[in-house]
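User: Teach me something about this protein's shape.
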Amino acid sequence: MRTLPKTYGLIAAVFTPLDSQGRLVLDGIEEYASFLEADGVQGVFVAGTTGESLSLRTEERKALAAAWVESAKGRLRVMVHVGHNCLDEAQELAEHAQAVGADAVSAMPPCFFRPADLEDLTAWCAAIAQAAPQSPFYYYHIPSMTGASFPMIEFIGRAVEKIPNFAGIKFTHEDLAEYQACLRWGQGALDILFGRDELLLSALRVGALGAVGSTYNFAAPLYQAIIQAYRQGDFPQAERLQQEACRIIDLCRASGGHVLAAFKSLMDWVGVPCGPFRPPVRNLTPQQQQHLRQVLAGTCSIHWWQQRKNRSLVRGKKAD
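Assistant: First, the predicted structure itself:
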């Protein structure tokens, strides 16, 4: 088991910048990193679900990881997702992430031929982690996408024995009782990151210290306000702000495109354009994007919209 300083605060599950034709664009990543740093984000999770990992070629993922390390190293913690349906490819990505200086690697299980049980899952993760033995390894638990739904508290017991560089879990699931059990394992020895933005306040209540999420890319000030209100004991304010975060997510879900494509479209609004999602994800039409922005501008509080508006104007972008 690899002991790491715990992650405190927000990790942005970053989008993969693409041009209008869906081609990888790397020259804006330094500015993207600066934007997140200015918002108080602590790190980035590169090429995960939000980052379209399985829609990218291996060479694209390597280039993306290297660009993020170069742009963010020393300012933001860089965690690189290396999961793949092909074990050889996952190992190659892990080896590369370590070589370019990523702070940690993470992997979800394969989602086509899935592990049959915890033994298979642990062996799969161990083989990937072994390819980057000096890098802390985080298992990426997201059963809604992978279909691999195993008790994480039992996985931890196996992982600490079989994976020397095992550091924790990116826990993207709604089972807060299981999440709390993972947090408490070994008297809090592991770094268990929470991955459901709409349940952040609930996770804080059971002991969460760090969280990884998509909406932290563009609405980090709102979530920072939730954390601050909770820590100050202002629970009604924390609850109100969490409800606002849920409202933003609900509006994106109702936008007419995929919710992640709606999130990604908002990056252009805040001055960090990231382009469209690759197929088969449905992108929003220009009309749908405009409607979403108008609705959000009339809904959001000072904690998100006004700061975003001010930042856009400072950066030479005209906010709607």
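Now, about its shape. Residues 233-320 form one domain. The chain has a mean pLDDT of 93. If you'd like, I can walk through any region in more detail.
User: That's plenty for now, thanks!
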